[in-house]
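To: structure desk
From: M.T.
Subject: fold request, one chain
Message: Could you run this one when you get a chance? Sequence is below, nothing fancy, just the single chain.
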Amino acid sequence: MSESATLAVGAKAAAARARGHDVIAFATGEPDFDTPDNIKRVAIHALEKGMTKYAPTPGDKSARLAIAHKLTQENGIETSFEQVTVTAGAKHAIYMALQAIVEPGRMDEVLLPTPAWVSYKPLIELAGAKCVEIAGARENGFRITSAQLAAAITPKTVGIVWNSPSNPCGIAYPASEVRALCDVLIKHERITIISDEIYEKLIYPEISPGLAHLSPGSLAALASRTITVNGLSKSYAMTGWRVGYLAAPLAMAKEIIKLQGQMTNSIPSFFYPAIVEALSNSAASVEAMRITFAARAQLMHRELSSVPKFHTVAPNAAFYAFPDVSGYFGTVSPAGVTINSAQSFADALLNEAHVAVVPGEDFGACARGNIRLSFACSDENIINGIGRIRTWVAQLK
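Reply: Done. Structure tokens follow.
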């Protein structure tokens, strides 16, 4: 296995700062906001009360009830608390979901619309399946079509990992397109949908009027074979808490919880009241962050659009932009580095202009000409960072 490209860039940026460079980082997929105070206070109070013992593997009942209520009321996914398990981040949930649906040695295939988050493919392969990429064209906003999906399905297909809003693309599928893709999946009863909805609250109808989230698990025909994955990291600025969760059909949830009991057991017990607080009493904080990210999305797109030879899709969700920089392949940097890939572009940009971005290679074969920039940072960083990029690319020969 290779290491996570996003974590690797973060480490390179930290090393450059340690050497004394003023690095502007667009690398990490982490909100720059602090966790809302009301959530922190509840966790502190639980800790002070002595809530420090083991909890049940899938979490305490109150937190699971809060998650089930959220999924039922907000997402239209009829969920009981028995169908929910709280995990060590959403990545842990995806890992277990894939382990549950893939049979090693059976030559299973799992579909992956790309560009896609760097960990999906390794997680699919770790489960013992072949990852089948379905490339979303930049001209279609990186979104795959129902015809592409239908063409990718074979008798070996057992699952699809679905992510909308998307990392790295910063786009959300319109509800009409989600329904069209689901119509294809409905015809294939063997396929389980793993729907990663970690960015669901970070959607910007200010940019794409009428844009709204639709969970595949809310469709009756798919409810019995959809695993919905989510967590508190992105929308609630709780990345370091490592609070994820999944909801699955009951029979599947029971098997996943067995696996979790042999892996991590529960997360820290004093986090569970904070989960309830986040899901019940933090909507205003989430909305304030969403509004800020929407403005940054517009600013980032304006700045990137001013860079010659960059081709980008206007982000309308999450906090990423994903420009194509292949127009600079074949050039040489001021320090004499030949730019022939997104990786060499990103490395030279960090070393010479001290701007950290994530190269596109690990986001899928179709993304080899792209770089990912996170706008989970200040307006000043966006303006200054893209300004450095403009200055640097002007010197490429």
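Reply (cont.): The chain has a mean pLDDT of 96. Let me know if you need anything else for the meeting.
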